[in-house]
Structure formats: C-alpha cells, structure tokens
Specification:
Number of domains: 3
CATH architecture of the largest domain: 3-Layer(aba) Sandwich
CATH topology of the largest domain: Rossmann fold
Shape: globular
Strand order of the largest sheet: 4-5-6-3-7
Radius of gyration: 24 Å
Helix content: 40-55%
Largest sheet: 5 strands, parallel
Structural class: alpha/beta
Length: about 400
Amino acid sequence: MLRETVTDCAACRLSGGYDSLALVLCQDLPGRLRRSPLARSLMCGTIAFQMNENVAAGNWPVVGHEWAVELLHNSLVAGRRPHAVLFTGPPQIGKRTLALALAAAMNCAAEGTRPCGQCRSCRLIARGAHSDVRVVQAETGESSREGVLKIDQIRELQRAAGLAPLESPNKVFVLREIERANLPAANALLKILEEPPPQVVLLLTSARPHALLPTVISRCQILALRPLPFTQVASALVERWGASPEDADLLSHLSEGRIGWAVERLKDSAARDERARRLIDAQQLPQMGRLQRLGYAETLTRAPASIHPTLVLWASWWRDVLLIQQGCQKHVSNVDRLSELEQQAQAFDPIQLRRFLVRLQEAPAQLNQNANARLLLEALMLHMPAPIARGPLGPSFGTEPAIVRPV
C-alpha cells in the first residue's frame, strides 16, 4: 500500500488527505479532468511516497521510481492489467525503461515474482527483439529539430494490433515521445485508445504532456516520473555502471536527477570534451564584440546537431550563475566549476542574466517550431549580458564602443 505526504500543492491541499491513489490529472495539465475524492493525482510534484517493505516487486530493471514500480506490480498481481499508460517526466528520466519493464512483467513466462529477467521473454525484451513488444518512435528529422510521429506509423500499429500475439499473452506497443505525433497521427491513435483489442497494451511516454490532446490523456492512466535524488543517481552509477565516485557525483548533479542522461554521458567521453569547450565559449562570448559573436552564431549554425545541446548547456551554466548570486550554491549543477561560477556571479548584473536565461530556455522550443536557427542564434548573441565595468564611481554596465560614422 502506498502512503503519501502532501506538502505545498494547492490542489492537493484543497482536496484533503486520502489513503488510495488513482491515476488522474492534476492542475498542471490543460484539459483538466474532474478529480475524485478517492484519490490524489500522481501529476502533483510535491507528493512524497513511502514504500511498503513487505511488497516484493520482482526484478524490475529500473533505478528509482519505487512508488511507480510498486503501483504497477500490485495492479498486475491483482489482475488489473492497464490497457493504456502514459509515462510523463523530463527527458531521459527512465520512462522508456519503466515501460519496457512493465512489458516484461506482463509477458514473463516464469512462475512467481515477475519479471524474472531470466526467461526467454524477458531476455528478448531486454534485447529489443521480442516479436510481441514493439517500440514506435518519431522518424528522424533535421539535426536541430525533432522528428515527427506520422500517421503511417500509427496505421501500421493498428494493423499489427489486430493480429494475435505470437508467443506471449499480451501484445505491447511502446510509443516514445508521443507529443511528437502530428494531428492526423494523434487522431488515428485515439481510435485504438478508445477500442483497444483485448490482448493489446499501449504504453506512451511524453516529456511534454501539456502538448498532448486532452482526449489522448483522458484515455490513459498517468504515471508522472520525477527526478531522482542525486545520491541515488550517484550510487547507481557506481554500483551498476562502475563509475568512479568523482564522476558519479559530477554526473548526478549535471543530470539533475535523470539517470538515463547520466548513464549516456558516462559512456561518452567525447561529450565531456565538448562540454568543456562549450563552457569556455559561454564565459568568453560576453567579452567579445558583436561581430565576433555573430560570427560564432554562423559557425554554430553549420553544426545543427550541436545547437540544441549547446543551448541546454548554456542555460544550465547561466542558471548556476544566478543561483550563486542568490546564495544558493548547493543547488548548482556544474559543481566542478564553482570557482569560475563565483567569478561570473560577480561580473554580471542579475537582471540582465535573468532576461537572457529566459531567452535561452525558450530557444529549443522555438527551434522545434521551425524558427530559423541562424536568426535565433544571432538574436541570442546580441542579447548576451554585458559584464559590469567597475570604475572609481562604482559598478556600471559594460558597453561596447560607439560606432563613429563619418559626416
């Protein structure tokens, strides 16, 4: 049984305390559904769950999210198999891993606790080779933009869903990043969500549930995954993936609780070198003139695949600078560069930083909406915060020399 402690969600305070949970929507999604007085929303980010130690949840290959594992395990034990589940949460937090673990638990051939991780079905699912478990995801788009989940892919899913399972009791479809579905594909998906074949289970994942059609959300059970504690991420990196304690501590902070991101960066040494270069750029660009910054934007545009990660990294950097300015050092992500962050915190005006950070955080979404990458980057370069010039009369905003035009 799950027990919950509510802190500061206004909707949860108004609804009172309940003993059971239902997978319903909270106040942070559009197209809100009516909340039942029998349950609390799992979309509330302020709920802290405590696990019942007597519940055995099998060999679920999932780091963290214990409350979600227990909830799904108990549903399967009680014979209440869901027909559609929507896993939400930040990118690379473990949505796909949990969805595949649920597919393994439903199709495991072992007796007793499931999934066993050893039977043929579990091994095939782990390798991505099970004939009755398919992963559907958006087709690759341009390097600087997201791909699109198209209607042809949903039609193929509908055709496959009408066929009987080949070797397992359930046919499971994992639809990754369902927010990338275009409108025709989303409407086609509604048909199978409304009338799914009895042997079919649909597992959807989304990092932006607010972008989904309300009719899609209303036909799914909702599991909102939240970032893991840094200590849990660091421990998993050391114990499961053999990371050194220093690397594990750094990656746990940089990942902001996203275990998938941390594991990916642990295995990618080139990404660490790229991070070091981009952070140097973030510190040097405000010191450059406008023409140099515009030239940097042009150079970055020639490598579209690096635009999005660069913007995310810069947003993390300037956020850390703002946090140090406000005395919140313990919340910074780039913990290996505290001395540089402290120097930057003294060199910039917090109001300018805040405005620039808002632009940085909005830029990835604008790129996905077909904004011109070069124009977007040039606008960011022109709105970069200027260092504070400290003179005998006190600090003043740094400015570039005025352009003298001939008369």
